[in-house]
Design a protein that fits this description.
Elements (H helix, E strand, L loop, with lengths): L1 H9 L10 E3 L13 H12 L4 E4 L1 H7 L8 E4 L3 H7 L3 E4 L5 E6 L2 E7 L5 H4 L9 H4 E3 L5 E4 L5 H7 L7 E4 L5 E3 L3 H7 L1 E2 L5 H7 L2 H13 L2 E2 L1 H4 L2 H4 L8 H12 L4 H10 L3 H4 L1 H7 L3 H19 L6 H8 L1 H13 L4 H17 L6 H16 L5 H9 L3 H14 L4 H12 L2 H11 L7 H18 L3
Parallel strand pairs: 3-6, 11-12
Antiparallel strand pairs: 1-10, 2-3, 2-9, 4-5, 5-6, 7-8, 9-10
Helix pairs in contact: 10-13, 10-14, 17-23, 18-21, 19-20, 21-23, 23-24
The chain binds adenosine-5'-triphosphate and magnesium ion.
Length: about 475
């Protein structure tokens, strides 16, 4: 049975399933001391209730690599409902992939029930009344849109993405089990998909992003056969739900390796399917490449220093050139610079949402950062006083500094704002006096006047 499953997943009858390797306590570096107590509690409760339970995924992989895991995932033979029956602090989530989340304050321990192959259901091996049929569903494009067929540990291992993510730690006997050659791949520092890469990327194109993210994060080579289809298959990402891609993008860029990840995304020509409006300008504009690279490096630095980061800032960076270009187009059609900027922002955010569902609370921040770029030129006292209090001032100032690296005409302005924040109030007054003549005329007044003219014209014509 398992052998058949393996052949199906590898797409070949000749490939032998590797034997299960069991590493005893003294043969590996997975230690309970490095584990979250909450994860251990969940493992013990499941075990003592008669279920199998293992730590799996990034938790085991990272400990074997000598790193501190970001989170802890557990695999069990208990169904999500049975898990929910054992933990009061449990929430069942996900339709495509049903999971139990056990909540301990801010920490979430993710518990997944062992999955089996969805092939059995497609081959009609299950009786037609079996509820396995609804539990697995494949879209017209071949994407696995539901994956809730439960199975054994061995079946679960081959449903996972990479061999290094299919290593199971048992808290009862402290062993690590490997039935897919993950330990060898870890030793070779390579990322290898389990099974036939084309089939596995077709089932779930997000595995392409996971390959890129994990190779950048862990400095692993993507094994040749795993890497080969990425360029041609990455357009399948366009079939993935924009909401899922929003989540994946956050993992790509907010895990401390954004700069390296972006490089790999460009190398494999994947970036164009996520950010078509960005890559369109990269080919011809090397300053913009630099601008993005600096933004990503500074995000990585902030994360390494435990400073807060927001995806809104990065999306404002990714769409900045498209905003400029669209604004110019609209201005050339007669829109005022303010109206052109607002309309352009609306349009390019909507276009980006076709691929990545930027939630409104973040698109609002992006637009604030962009709008403040214009207001930062106005150094009249009233405007400066209100800007410095603005909740997005710091993000907008950082954005201006990034732009100033590539645009020397902004260097003086950026330096002025840097100095202004550093000096005491007397010196601030002096700085304001020095530049009072340089600020643009009040455009808001002009706009209002224009609006009044328009409405009085409408009133006159009876509209
Ligand atoms: P991280 O350190 O970022 O948490 P991770 O590998 O643990 O990395 P998770 O998203 O937490 O990533 O997933 C936990 C485990 O679930 C993975 O290690 C892998 O075994 C499995 N998994 C996650 N996503 C997929 C997928 N798309 N296809 C197959 N298996 C997956
Ligand atoms: Mg994880």
């Amino acid at each position: 049975m398992l052998k058949n499953l393996w052949s199906k997943l590898t797409g070949s009858r000749t490939v032998e399933q590797p034997k299960c390797v069991v590493l005893t306590r003294d043969q590996h570096s997975v230690s309970r001391k490095k584990m979250s107590n909450n994860a251990l509690k969940v493992l013990h409760r499941l075990n003592s209730s008669g279920y199998q339970a293992f730590l799996v995924g990034g938790g085991v992989r990272d400990m074997l690599l000598g790193l501190s895991p970001k989170d802890f995932d557990i695999a069990t033979d208990a169904t999500p409902e049975e898990v929910a029956g054992l933990f009061k602090n449990c929430r069942l989530v996900g339709r495509r992939f049903r999971l139990a989340h056990i909540l301990f304050g801010r920490e979430i321990i993710e518990v997944a029930t062992f999955r089996a192959s969805h092939h059995d259901t497609q081959d009609n091996k299950q009786p037609s009344h079996s509820n396995k049929i609804e539990k697995s569903k494949v879209s017209a494009e071949g994407l696995l849109v539901r994956d809730n067929v439960y199975g054994s540990l061995e079946e679960d291992a081959v449903r996972r993405d990479f061999t290094i993510n299919a290593l199971y730690y048992c808290a009862k006997d402290f062993t690590v089990r490997d039935s897919v050659g993950g330990i060898d791949d870890l030793n070779r520092r390579q990322l290898r998909l389990i099974g036939d890469p084309v089939e596995r990327y077709t089932e779930d194109p997000v595995r392409i992003l996971r390959a890129i993210r994990l190779s950048a994060k862990l400095d692993l080579t993507i094994e040749t056969k795993t890497a080969a289809p990425i360029r041609t298959m990455s357009e399948m990402l366009e079939h993935v739900s924009p909401a899922r891609l929003w989540d994946e993008c956050n993992k790509l860029f907010l895990a401390g390796h954004a700069h390296q990840t972006w490089h790999v995304l460009l190398d494999y020509q994947v970036a164009a399917h996520l950010f078509p409006q960005t890559t369109q300008f990269l080919k011809t504009n090397s300053d913009y490449q630099q601008f993005i690279a600096r933004a990503l490096k500074s995000t990585d630095k902030r994360i390494s220093q435990q400073q807060p980061v927001t995806p809104a800032f990065l999306f404002a960076v990714f769409l900045w050139q498209a905003l400029q270009s669209q604004t110019e187009k609209l201005q050339s059609r007669g829109f005022s610079s303010y109206d052109a900027g607002q309309k352009a922002a609306e349009k390019i955010i909507e276009l980006q949402r076709n691929t990545i569902a930027i939630p409104k609370r973040f698109s609002i921040v992006m637009r604030e950062i962009w709008n403040l770029q214009y207001r930062l030129h106005n150094r009249r006292k009233k405007n400066v006083d209100s800007l410095i209090q603005h909740p997005r001032f710091r993000a907008a100032y950082d954005f201006l500094c990034l732009r100033a690296n590539e645009d020397s005409t902004l260097a003086e302005l950026a330096k002025w704002w840097t100095d202004f924040q550093e000096v005491h109030s007397e010196k601030r007054q002096e700085m304001l006096r020095q530049v009072s003549g340089n600020s643009p005329k009040k455009k808001r007044f002009n706009r209002r006047k224009k609006y009044q003219n328009k409405t009085s014209h409408k009133n006159r014509s009876g509209q």
